[in-house]
Specification:
4-stranded antiparallel beta sheet; alpha+beta; globular; about 20% strand; binds protoporphyrin IX containing FE; 12 strands
């Protein structure tokens, strides 16, 4: 049974539940069902022109895991790894146990599980195709405000695993890692979350840990604009794929929480209540940067985050598919939380790099945010059954 724009019901055993399903709205991000017990059965198709987990409406839970290939890994090892992990991902996302898995109950309700693969420079070098690695993926520039730590940065292979349910997600990740153990080691693993699925009506922009609606200006997934922003149209192996810039951004929520609401809203030029501009209008409207108050002073600060981040050319646009993180307080009770910022775009040279350069030069939000991790990955296109992710590159 196909639900909306591509979510399907998993497993024959759940066929009964299918009979009780009804769609609330069409579209890949809004497929939802009326019966609570059936939601876990929703499947995002793994095979397709593009990898799942990018146009898919952000799930409630995510894990970003970076693998490093073992020393001496060559093309045949990478082939073996990607073949195996593609097969695992296809099965797990469909609600089935992976190879040699004998506990089908755990993955049976995948809750829109997606597994998305990204390739770092080390993978290209291992297969003898270092020249196929986009330069920006190998050499993402340093930015003035960076405070990067190795323990959150880099990686040869990225697995972005997302689901509305942390249980099938946990199982999927452990099986993927287990099947990669001979050929790769874990470099880092970062856990993120969004508001619970359906805690607000479908299509509502999620809140981050600063309380802001975050994602307002994103292109809608079913539009031409989305494709033009996200998918690579370069001839060659990356066509239909994308580029991911992943940043771990710590938030100083202690000082943020003490700030008055007007100052909080001035930092982005958007209201905390509903994400609408401080100059008035609806959430999707842009702030009016020409507006002045009674004394003739500008209402919107020149260094407001949205003013600095807004695309100044069409090619600067990106899809921000971030997740909050919260690793709990340290022994002194100081929070360790922030944003796992994940930006997908067809070419990071044209979008993330100039935008982040501007933000590093001046952004009111820099007082409360610090980039502590960074990794960039080429994201291959999707594949069809029988192929593996990255086959056009690895061969
Ligand atoms: C907009 C928060 C980091 C790029 C926004 C908005 C918020 C926000 C609340 C307004 C609503 C929206 O359109 O989503 C944050 C937080 C960050 C962060 C809390 C760090 C913890 C970044 C970074 C970049 C970025 C690192 C890119 C380099 C953008 C863009 C927009 C935006 C492109 C849309 C601007 C527009 O066209 O209106 N961000 N952001 N943000 N942010 Fe950020």
């Amino acid at each position: 049974l196909l639900l909306g724009g591509g979510a399907t019901l998993a497993g024959g055993s759940l066929a009964g539940a299918a009979a009780t399903l009804a769609l609330s709205e069409p579209g890949p991000d809004t497929a939802s069902v009326v019966t609570a017990e059936a939601k876990g059965a929703q499947v995002v198709p793994f095979y397709g022109n593009h990898q799942a987990g990018i146009a898919t409406g952000a799930q409630a839970h995510a894990r970003f895991l970076a693998l490093d290939l073992k020393p001496g890994a060559d093309r045949s090892h990478v082939q073996r790894l990607l073949r195996l992990l593609t097969d695992d991902a296809a099965k797990l996302t469909a609600g089935r146990a992976p190879l040699a898995g004998n506990d089908p109950e755990i993955p049976a309700l995948p809750s829109r599980l997606t597994v998305t693969f990204g390739f770092g420079p080390g993978l290209f070098d291992a297969i003898g195709r270092g020249d196929h690695c986009p330069d920006v993926i190998r050499n993402l520039p340093a930015f003035a405000t960076d405070r990067l730590e190795d323990r959150w940065s880099g990686g040869d292979v990225l697995l972005q695993v997302c689901s509305d349910d942390a249980v099938p997600l946990s199982y999927a990740l452990r099986r993927l890692v287990r099947d990669s153990r001979d050929l790769a080691s874990v470099r880092w693993c970062q856990t993120g979350f969004n508001p619970a699925r359906d805690s607000e009506p479908a299509g509502t922009t999620p809140r981050n840990l600063m309380g802001q609606r975050d994602g307002t200006a994103n292109p809608a997934s079913d539009t031409e604009d989305f494709g033009a922003t996200v998918w690579s149209d370069e001839p060659g192996w990356l066509r239909g794929g994308s580029m991911l810039v992943f940043r771990r951004i710590r938030m100083d929520v202690d000082t943020w929480d003490d700030l008055g609401r007007p100052a909080k809203e001035m930092a982005t030029a958007r209201k905390l209540s509903d994400g609408s501009p401080v100059t008035g209008g609806a959430e999707k409207d842009d702030p009016d940067t020409a507006a002045v108050d009674g004394q003739g002073f500008p209402v919107v600060a020149a260094e407001a985050h949205v003013v600095r981040a807004t695309a100044r050319t069409p090619t600067e646009r990106m899809l921000r598919r971030g997740f909050s993180y919260d690793d709990g307080p340290d022994p002194d009770g100081k929070p360790d939380c922030g944003l796992l910022f994940a930006a997908y775009q067809k070419d990071a040279v044209a979008s993330f790099v100039p935008v982040q350069k501007r933000l590093a030069e001046s952004d009111a939000m820099n007082t409360w945010t610090t980039h502590v991790g960074s990794a960039a990955f080429a994201v291959p296109p999707g594949c069809t059954e029988g192929e593996y992710i990255g086959e056009a590159l690895v061969g």
